[in-house]
Amino acid sequence: MPATATLETQAPKAGYAMDDVRANVDPKPQLESDSYRAAGKLEGKAALVTGGDSGIGAAAAIAFAKEGADVALVYYSSDDDAQAVADRIRELGRRALVFKGDVGDEGFCQSVVKRVVDEWGHLDVLVNDAGEQTPQASILDVSQAQLVRTFQTNIFSMFFLVKAALPHLPQGGTIVNTTSVTAYQGSPQLLDYSATKGAITAFTRSLSENEELVKRGIRVNAVAPGPIWSPLNPASYGPDSEKVRTFGQETPMGRPGQPYELAPAYVFLASEDSSYISGQVIHINGGMVVNG
Q1: Of 76, 193, 237, 266, catalytic
Q2: Residue 261 belongs to what domain range?
Q3: Which of 75, 132, 199, 275 could join 82 in a cystine, given CB atoms 3.0 to 4.6 angstroms apart?
Q4: 184 in catalytic set
Q5: 261 domain-assigned
Q6: Is the pTM for the entire model greater than 0.70?
């Protein structure tokens, strides 16, 4: 049986049931590509991926398994999606662990890392991908509760997980964070979300220069997605909203990205292929040119 931990503290967003939206996303996000060719880049590694039940996190987790890694998934609410990703990892011949809970709770983050290390004996890669957003037309509509909740999930969790994982990461371990194009371009309806993504970029750069990590050869990088088709946006705006119907059309490529199109970047940053890269952000956004 997969290992599972539970902490149910996060409120539903935008009035939609997240599990219902995930189940009815049309078309379904594409987590894999037939053209991907694995090369054992993460053979024998153990990876922990937050937000691993759907979207970018799920695509990265599956790609890690294809590259030879065992993968522990952390998710908040969608049991069926998380188990489907875990089943796919096992189908690929790798081990999977599944943890359900709130990454905004430091105790939960500590317990997840401990369980992974107890089960597998090591942890080599940490991917901080979990995130939430709640659009608001005005800053006057952003409540203190929403502000705190968004920061807890999106950036506090990264502090919690890095603190828990760092004692276990080996020489040459890797950390990959998910920031966003909104950190560079802003988003008028996502003030708190964009602020957390800017914080993630600064956190990534600052952590990469920390003396302890540098001495141990632990590299820290990030991926900045543009509009990627995942359950997050239908859940945030409503599946029938104009925002969702036109999602991604503002990019030079005129479409949203699919989760599988980001997975190779996570593999690259987690593997020795990026051995001379740290403190950097890879922008995967359909051609939008941003500074940074």
Answers
A1: 193
A2: 38-284
A3: 75
A4: no
A5: yes
A6: yes
